[in-house]
Design goal:
This protein is of the alpha/beta class and 345 residues long. The chain has helices at 2-34, 65-70, 86-90, 92-96, 107-113, 125-132, 146-159, 163-184, 211-218, 238-244, 261-265, 274-277, 298-309, 316-331, 337-340, and strands spanning 37-39, 45-47, 57-58, 77-79, 117-121, 137-141, 194-198, 204-206, 222-223, 233-235, 248-251, 281-283.
Amino acid sequence: MNIRIELKRIVSLLLVSSIALTSCHSVSVNQASDSNVIIDAANNKLSIKENAETLMAASVYAVAVPFFSALKMTDRVKAVNTKSKFWKEVDEHLEKADTVGKGTVDLEKLAKINPSCLVHRSNDKKTVDAVKKLGIDVLCIRVESVEDVIYTLDIMGKYFGREKEAQEVIEYIRNKFDKIDNIVKNIKEEEKKTAIVMGGTLGRVAGSDMLQSFMINKAGGVCKVLEKKDSNWVDIGVEKIFEYNPDYIFLTSSTSLDYDEEELLNSSTWSAMKAVKDNKIFKIPSKMDSWDMPGISCVIGTMYMLYKMYPEYFSKEELQEEIDEYYNLMFGKTFDKNYLGYTLE
């Protein structure tokens, strides 16, 4: 009887050891393969190819454009969709690039130009599946937080063989937000300002899970909006905005508005709002290059909010230095504020 028990114990130990060894082997194999694979924002796996540095890209997603520029790979973009003429005016490669649609992919034309990869938004599975059937890779991105922006740079850098460029921009972003954090930590709780970002129509605001709301909080403000809608603009209505009654109202520059600052400031309907009474309604710059468009420019967009809400902690002169540094990083030169369409007054 004791012999049988001992034999069972030995067999059990051998089985456990075998499973453990197998598990260890599986982990090492996965780790080895993962070094040649990226996982995009839609949780799809893409293999990193040996010719990564020569792969050609296309996109109908305007958000992708600053990432192409930041990675210094616009000469490899076959087709693109730009929200502003700025990008084509400052980059000859983007100016020459074709288009395969705006927001919606023209599959026939995409097949004709045949890029290596379509960079696309992460919440459009139907398009992703259709493009894959053409034999074209799809790299999905999502950029509703700073970590999203950093992750997008990382995976695009690896896929397109631009890791060095990606890491340089990632370091810039992290350093700048560390700087913002160091300023904000000196702002006392009782000094904190409440704010919202309004969208294209009156009553539409950035949801609590959108990048614009993140920017408010990162700049030391308190975003009043609680509603969210899958990282999208939320129609909460004017009455709800009146109820929130924020200290500051920022207007997006990432989409066209059917109203403007002057309309709100001169409106008898809005006159009881704290932000209106205190003249604290500001459109986020800039006219040519939106600083609240999801992407690298959210750094200077956040700094703009910081300056507007807390000028005693972050000056106009400091902000201008940061704006110039950003454009030098992205384009190797600065731009006149009249051309970009912004004022810091």
